[in-house]
Amino acid sequence: MKKRILVVEDEEHIAEGLAINLEAEGYEVVVAGDGHAALDYWRNGGFQLIILDIMLPGIDGLEVCRTIRSEEGQIPILFLTARGRDDDRVAGLQAGGDDYLTKPFNLKELLLRVAGIFRRQVWYTTDKLDSDRYQFADYWVDFKSFQALGNAGEIDLTQKGCMIMKFLAEHAGEVVTRDMILDAVWGYNAFPSNRTVDNFIVRLRKVFEPDPSKPRYIHTIHGAGYRFTPRGDINA
């Protein structure tokens, strides 16, 4: 079955070019020219990816993204925009975007990023663990619902937080580098840096570590990366 992509772009020549090239790669493409139409299409369902311009008439792309995320939409979103400053990229990712590409863009790079997003989707939905709910010590993470049981009870994790936990669980006991986590969760070409991984680890420790300053489960291996120890080891 073809993967369906929603392209949200108000410049007709760009939208048409994207549709033609994505369809040539074997995808099914639907085009929306503004934010209201984008939300209508998304709510009707059936898409596996949204390519979203930020500067749109009516509702801008950032607000479209925030609305989708607030309605528990976990569909991957690739921002495509003329806004190329670092703070614009950060704003896009904070709104819930998965990747960010600036105009004018290289078509081959865009197609590679789309393929990378779908590749990471396949990894995340592949059962390498016993079940969708992974348990360690007194905690658990549900990789399908993005819910978890942490120190403060049941909470909702972000999709990226769940993806990092899944990667750590699949490599339990091994040292994984920040680059390995970036490649699995974001892809090397995405904007996040090694520091982004560190920030997510800090947040996950607040959820799962009895004392985040003395980790028992998610350990920093200085000069290398991280090691997840499900059984708990304060001296790891």
Secondary-structure topology with pairs:
Elements: E1 4-8, H1 12-24, E2 28-32, H2 35-44, E3 49-52, H3 61-70, E4 77-81, H4 86-94, E5 99-102, H5 107-125, E6 133-136, E7 139-142, E8 147-150, E9 153-156, H6 159-170, E10 175-176, H7 178-185, H8 194-208, E11 218-221, E12 225-228
Parallel strand pairs: 1-2, 1-3, 3-4, 4-5
Antiparallel strand pairs: 6-7, 7-8, 8-9, 10-12, 11-12
Helix pairs in contact: 2-3, 6-8
Keywords:
236 residues, alpha/beta, Rossmann fold, Arc Repressor Mutant, subunit A, 2 domains, 5-stranded parallel beta sheet, 4-stranded antiparallel beta sheet, 8 helices, 12 strands, elongated
Question: Can you describe what's shown?
Answer:
It is a single chain. This protein is α/β, with parallel strands linked by helices and 236 residues long. The protein has two domains: 4-125, Rossmann fold (3-Layer(aba) Sandwich), CATH 3.40.50; 133-228, Arc Repressor Mutant, subunit A. 41% of the residues lie in helices and 21% in strands. It is built from eight helices and twelve strands. The protein has helices spanning 12-24, 35-44, 61-70, 86-94, 107-125, 159-170, 178-185, 194-208; strands spanning 4-8, 28-32, 49-52, 77-81, 99-102, 133-136, 139-142, 147-150, 153-156, 175-176, 218-221, 225-228. The strands form three sheets. It has a five-stranded parallel β-sheet, with helices on both faces. A four-stranded antiparallel β-sheet has the order 6-7-8-9, with helices on one face. The protein has a three-stranded antiparallel β-sheet with strand order 10-12-11. Helix 2 (35-44) runs parallel beside helix 3 (61-70). The radius of gyration is 19 Å and the shape is elongated. It starts with a strand and ends in an 8-residue tail after the last strand. The model has no long low-confidence stretch (mean pLDDT 87).
